[in-house]
Amino acid sequence: MKVKQVIVLHGLYMSGFVMRPLCSRLKSSGVKVLNLTYNTLTPNRDAIFAQIDEFIGDQPSAFVCHSMGGLVARAYLEANSPASQHVEKVITLGTPHKGSHIAQKMQQKGFESFLKNSVEFLLSKNGNWPFKAKLYSIAGDLPIGLMPLIVKGSCSDGTVLLDETKLKGMAEHKVFHLSHTSMIYSRQVLYYILERLNEDD
What we know:
- This protein has 201 residues and is α/β, with parallel strands linked by helices.
- It is built from seven helices and six strands; from the N terminus they run βαβαβαβααβαβα.
- A six-stranded parallel β-sheet has the order 2-1-3-4-5-6, with helices on both faces.
- The model has no long low-confidence stretch (mean pLDDT 92).
């Protein structure tokens, strides 16, 4: 089913501002967009989920999420509200579905104050995708960032390991030669997202 509206969720330390160019292009394609800004360090689940519920109503919807935003979308689906039953697709960009290795290292080194309550999402250990909504996981393999220093010889987008973006039960895993943040602004990624959104299932 083609979706009529899209919820866009940003990643850690960001806001909806960074997602505006992507949202503008999505709107131009004819879908209604909720570019939801939330506090990534002290996320209020009830408030976030209530905004998403209100936006979805009973219309076929999808998520487009960068990084931690994909984990927030998962938590929303796990809450299993009536509105969540209308989510057809979840498209994630650089989301560490299996948990973030960098966040784990920061916690181990005593830097948890830089993460605060984001760890409830970033340190989750997910192995599969159990929802009826199809998951399309986009990953990058241009390692610009800290990850090559933390895990030598690893394949990553510089922030998230390639393996962290894979889950059993996902519909598709797509890799682009992009870094963690650049995939938000990539035309290639945009075209891929639009193709997935316009597919009839």
